[in-house]
Amino acid sequence: MGSHQEQARNAVGLLLWLDPTHHQAIRHLPSLSPAAVSIVASEANSILDCLRQENLVLPPIPFVSALCQEGGIEVDAAFLAFNQDLVVRGVADILDAVGALIFDDHLYCLLRRYQTGLVGRLPELEAPYTCRPVTVPEDCRSMFVTFSKGQPIEREEIFDYFRQKWGDCIVRVLMEKTTRGKPPMYGRIIFKSEAFVSLVLNGQPLIKIAIGHRQIWLRKYIPRPHNM
C-alpha cells in the first residue's frame, strides 16, 4: 500500500483504527485488485496529510467510505475532520502497540522461512502477543523545526497548535537560545510518542505547516553534538 514504507504503515494504521468501530474497512482489502488497494492507500494518506494542516479541508474519500459502509455510521471527510484528534491519537496508539508486531520485518522473514519449510517451529513465532510499554528515547520522538525569517513564533503557539488539533501529544517545545532580543530561528518539538513524528511527516523528509499565516518547517530530529 503506497510507495513509501512509512506511508503504507500509516495507511494500515488508519484502516485498523476504523475496524474496532465496526466499520471493518481493512478486512475487505484482500478481495480488492492491486489498483483498488492503491487508491485506498492514496485516500488514507491524503487524510493523514490533511490532518496536520491548519485549515482542515479533506478531499473526497469514496473508496474508504465504501469500505466502511457496514458500520452504520457514514465515514466521510467530514466525519474524520470532526474527529481528527481521536483519529490521530488512535492511529498513534495502534502504531506504537500492535504495529510493532505486525510491521516487524524480522518476524515476517521468519514466517516466510517457516512457510517454505526452511525451518521448523519457532518459539519466536509462537509467542503470544503482549502489549508492553516501551520507553522510547526523546531523540526518537523529536522533530527539528525551523522558522521563516521575520516571522517569529512563540513556543506556546506551537504547543497550542498541536494540542488543539491532536490533543495531548506534546511533551515540550524547546527554542533556540538567543541574545539581544533576537527571535529564535529553530527549535525542537518533543512528542509523547514516536508515532506522532511518523504521522506528521507521513513519508516526507520535510514538511511545511502554517500557524497563523506563518510558516514553519519540520523534519525528523537528528541528534548532533551540542544540539538542544
Class inferred from helices and paired strands: alpha+beta
Element string (H = helix, E = strand): HHHHHHHHEHEEHEE
Count of separate DSSP helical elements: 10
Question: How much strand?
Answer: 5-15%
Q: Tell me, what's the shape?
A: globular
Summarize the biggest pleated sheet. Answer: 5 strands, antiparallel
**Strand runs, count:** 5
- State the distance separating the first and last CA atoms: 36 Å
Low-confidence stretches: none
Helicity level? 40-55%
Rg calculated over all Cα atoms:
20 Å
Whole-number average pLDDT? Answer: 87
- Strand order of the main beta sheet, please? 2-3-1-5-4
Count of discrete structural domains: 2
Protein name: RRM domain-containing protein
Descriptive overview:
The chain folds into 2 domains: 5-101, no CATH class; 138-220, Alpha-Beta Plaits (2-Layer Sandwich). Helix 1 packs across helix 5 and helix 5 (84-96) crosses helix 10. The mean pLDDT is 87. Strand 4 (207-211) and strand 5 (214-220) form a beta hairpin. The protein is built from 10 helices and 5 strands, in the order ααααααααβαββαββ. It has a 5-stranded antiparallel beta sheet with strand order 2-3-1-5-4. Helix content is 42%, strand content 13%. The radius of gyration is 20 Å and the shape is globular. With 228 residues, it is an alpha+beta fold. This is RRM domain-containing protein.
